[in-house]
Write a structure and sequence with these properties.
Elements (H helix, E strand, L loop, with lengths): L10 E2 L2 E2 L3 E3 L13 H18 L1 E4 L5 H16 L4 E2 L10 H7 L3 E5 L7 H19 L11 E5 L1 E7 L3 E6 L8 E8 L6 H4 L3 E3 L10 E3 L6 E5 L6 E6 L2 E11 H24 L2
Helix pairs in contact: 1-4, 2-4
Length: about 280
């Protein structure tokens, strides 16, 4: 199981320490388990919808039985006490209670290879397959602007009801390398009118009065651009709400972000040593 103390995202000068995973060259894991025609169709949907709308929704992604197995593993993670308060890119000058007014979810990072995470690993492999294949297809629209060769570990998130929320924000406002956000929802029989928890996206280029309202329905997979094109918020949830999120990196932007961080870190170390 994930170790709670190792799962907290630590903010440093506008950069995040992401638990990163390299994507294997060639075919992604579990590709053999997806019918090629179905895979092609899903990839085309992702390519076209991201290019046209900046987001894409795929329902009934794993099927009811496999989705339930993933949910059981998430509940097991929660039961171990591994979930911790979600963090922000920058927490300078903010008290813990102030942070909870911004985001009030509980999270941990999962590789998918831990004991009792087999089905989460299967989900991750399926999403990897879609992203890597779509990124390498011909005529792949705006997705072709990126070279995706890595991602974060999976972030398991729980909004524990009682109005838990995440205010309007951008996942990657500072070119940290993340280009695509992928969210898988695990909420059976979710009624957004009763339970809230809506994800509202404000896509760049849409009419000012137009938003994308995404209900966090069981076995739904959502993709959207991670940068400033898609500010979004999680509206207050009044029942426990679960999701698993992956962020995929553009190789060049991530390399530049790491180089920038290393330069800042060295400058800080030099400044600290000279002042002592």
């Amino acid at each position: 199981m994930p170790i709670a103390g190792e799962n907290i995202v630590k903010p440093v000068k506008g950069m995040k320490y992401f638990p990163e995973v390299a994507l294997a060259g060639g075919s992604a894991p579990f590709q053999h388990s997806i019918d090629d025609v179905v895979l092609e169709s899903m990839c085309r949907n992702i390519i076209e919808d991201l290019s046209d709308y900046g987001l894409c929704v795929l329902d009934n992604f794993l099927g009811f039985e496999e989705g339930n197995r993933v949910m059981a593993e998430v509940l097991n993670i929660k039961g171990t006490g591994a979930l911790r308060d979600g963090q922000l890119v920058s927490t300078r000058g903010k008290a813990k209670e102030d942070l909870k007014t911004i985001r009030s979810d509980k999270i941990c990072w999962v590789h998918g290879k831990e004991p009792d995470c087999e089905h989460i690993g299967y989900l991750i492999g399926r999403v990897d397959t879609l992203i890597t294949r779509a990124n390498r297809m011909f005529n792949n629209g705006k997705l072709g602007q990126y070279n995706i060769n890595g991602r974060t570990k999976a972030m398991v998130a729980c909004y524990p009801g009682s109005g838990a929320h995440y205010v309007k924000h951008v996942d990657n406002p500072n070119r940290d390398g993340r280009c695509i956000t992928a969210i898988y929802y695990l909420n059976r029989n979710w009624d957004v009118d009763q339970y809230g928890g809506l994800l509202r996206i404000f896509p760049e280029g849409w009419r000012e009065d137009k938003v994308a309202d995404i209900e966090p329905l069981f076995d739904r997979l959502l993709f959207f651009w991670s940068d400033r094109r898609n500010p979004h918020e999680v509206q207050p949830a009044f029942a426990t709400r679960y999701a698993i999120t992956l962020w995929y990196f553009d190789a060049a932007e991530r390399e530049e972000a790491v180089r920038r961080y290393d330069k800042e870190r060295l400058a800080l170390e030099k400044s600290t040593s000279s002042s002592t």
